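#lab-general

N.A. 3:47 PM
ok so I finally got the sequence cleaned up, no stray characters, all 202 residues accounted for. can someone with queue access submit it? mine expired

B.Y. 3:52 PM
send it over

N.A. 3:53 PM
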Amino acid sequence: MTATILYIHGLNSSPASHKASQLSRAMARLDLAGRLRVPALHHHPRQAMAQLETLIAELGAPLLVGSSLGGYYATHLAERHGLRALLINPAVRPHLRFDGYLGPQKNYYSDETWELTHDHVVALAELEVAPPNDAARYQVWLQTGDETLDYRDAERYYRACALRIQAGGDHGFQGFAERLPMLFAFAGIAATLWRDIDFSDL
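B.Y. 4:20 PM
back already:
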């Protein structure tokens, strides 16, 4: 059975991000647009998690695809609900990374401005879970050229999971479209639907 895919974007991102847009176009090309959800998440972790919990309750057992901070959210949710997750350059313990960053923020896509507060950091810390140890439920895609997060943090944290580490790249994850067949296979989408399609033009 094909899982519905729940894409979880990162901090100051949106459904209009490059990867989310590529995934949306690819699912439409497969006539599976109805099997993808890409919510616009609130900037506060507690409100974002409430949105995601509502969607999981609605969708049943979606495949979580999380990018950056979305990977941190996806890990918490996968552990809480026993779900499968594909993580792309995921943030590890992001609550330890905000020293000097509190204050005004701007969403890269919506131009929304908001204030990053200590309460955001506390809320992120509440979501931390022990490193997952189920390689069957996790795929973790890392690029060593990530300029925002040190890929080695995720390499250590997810060492018991199925790691795919690619030299070079960046935080946005170069070559995402070309790797979509791996995502579709993990989601249980029949290979007959995608194996003859070139996604590099997305």
